[in-house]
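queue> pop job 88
queue> type: inverse folding (structure -> sequence)
queue> payload:
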């Protein structure tokens, strides 16, 4: 029915969790390819369903449009990866104090790519440890 309610422990706020897959905060690097043009980016967060990309305060030229088909090549420092995933640009997150962030939704991830992506997410979660913990509300009562 409704999404699971989570509380961000550091902020004490509750809100419904709308995402189908949990996200991991990362510092992985990536190359986003749109048509034949490559853009360097950093993966801010990652899930089995998609990623949020930071272009290091460089606005991509030519622009990437919502709906554009993309390839995301994600690389990490340790054993897992790289993995190349197909998807589409779904949302620009615009803030006045920083460069825009691009949300990418992956197509269905299967086979070897699914295994590699799971390893990348596990690596990211292990790296952050308990720094950004989200706890179900019923565990806090």
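queue> result:
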């Amino acid at each position: 029915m409704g999404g699971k309610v989570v509380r961000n422990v550091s902020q004490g706020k509750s809100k419904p969790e709308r995402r189908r897959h949990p996200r991991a905060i990362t510092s992985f690097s990536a190359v986003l390819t749109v048509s034949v043009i490559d853009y360097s980016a950093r993966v801010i967060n990652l899930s089995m369903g998609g990623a949020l990309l930071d272009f290091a305060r460089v606005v991509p030229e030519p622009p990437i449009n919502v709906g554009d088909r993309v390839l995301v090549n994600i690389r990490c420092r340790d054993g897992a990866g790289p993995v190349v995933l197909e998807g589409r640009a779904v949302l620009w997150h615009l803030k006045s104090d920083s460069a825009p962030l691009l949300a990418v939704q992956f197509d269905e991830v299967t086979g070897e790519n699914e295994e590699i992506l799971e390893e990348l997410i596990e690596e990211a979660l292990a790296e952050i440890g308990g720094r950004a913990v989200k706890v179900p509300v019923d565990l806090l009562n």
